[in-house]
């Protein structure tokens, strides 16, 4: 009898199918460490709903007696090193050291949403150029697998046509794509909307334990990160119960709106703040951003 478990990590999710009820906690830990690349002494596992810590201490305990059931979902996190210096990586359990929430500018190349998600998940830019095509493929496969949920009314075009469209590297992502990526990676994606000075939280209803932040100005997405006060490290992944960073992101949204750092795509004449030329409407703004890499627009 097989014992299948769905496993979510910061890089995605997969299914373990080669366990049985007679396998032990030790066998489970070995597999979890292998797929997550997290050392056993730093492995932290959450299970259930809402997610709670799952005990890994009894190596000899059989899975049939562990409280797990075939089909359950496990969320893997990496505990901080006990002897680590007080520097931050791209993920941390809490935000108790001083720092500043900042924006990382990514290229204006029609894939800014995907580049931003990659940076937020990994703490670095995608140098290989494979992240955006991969995410586009994930979205297309998800949409194609459920034509009833992803109907023409939701997508704005027929399901099959949308699947081809989103895999075109000239197509822009938005709310639908963010919702799918949130579910795929098992993270809440909080988007700081500088037009309306609000935060849209994708995956909020799933009660994920971790959150990333993006900023959206109407035509461009950038990821947000917390830089330590000494500039030595950054953090891009935050616990969803960390209200402090959420409040800082909300303040960023208000500041951006008050200083008009947004692009109302429905009605605007824009001025490129990099080269001072004037642009009319969404199409010209997109073309200018794509051809020049400029993303700093002001509404006239």
Please provide a brief summary of the model:
By secondary structure, the protein is α+β, with helices and mostly antiparallel strands. The chain is built from eight helices and 15 strands.
Features:
Ubiquitin-like (UB roll); Cathepsin B, Chain A; 3 domains; 5-stranded mixed beta sheet; EC 3.4.19.12; Papain-like_cys_pep_sf
Explain this structure to me?
- It is a single chain.
- The protein is an alpha+beta fold.
- It has three domains: 3-78, Phosphatidylinositol 3-kinase Catalytic Subunit, Chain A, domain 1 (Ubiquitin-like (UB roll), Roll), CATH 3.10.20; 99-258, Cathepsin B, Chain A; 263-300, no CATH class.
- 30% of the residues lie in helices and 24% in strands.
- It is built from eight helices and 15 strands.
- It has helices at 25-36, 112-122, 131-145, 152-155, 159-166, 175-185, 243-258, 281-292, and strands spanning 3-9, 12-19, 43-47, 52-53, 73-78, 99-103, 188-193, 198-202, 210-216, 221-228, 234-235, 238-239, 269-272, 278-280, 297-299.
- Strands 6, 7, 8, 9, 10, 11 and 12 form a seven-stranded mixed beta sheet that branches. Strands 2-1-5-3-4 form a five-stranded mixed beta sheet, with helices on one face. It has a three-stranded antiparallel beta sheet with strand order 14-13-15, with helices on one face.
- A hairpin with a 2-residue loop joins strand 1 (3-9) and strand 2 (12-19).
- Helix 3 (131-145) runs antiparallel to helix 5 and helix 3 crosses helix 6.
- The radius of gyration is 21 Å and the shape is globular.
- It starts with a strand and ends with a strand.
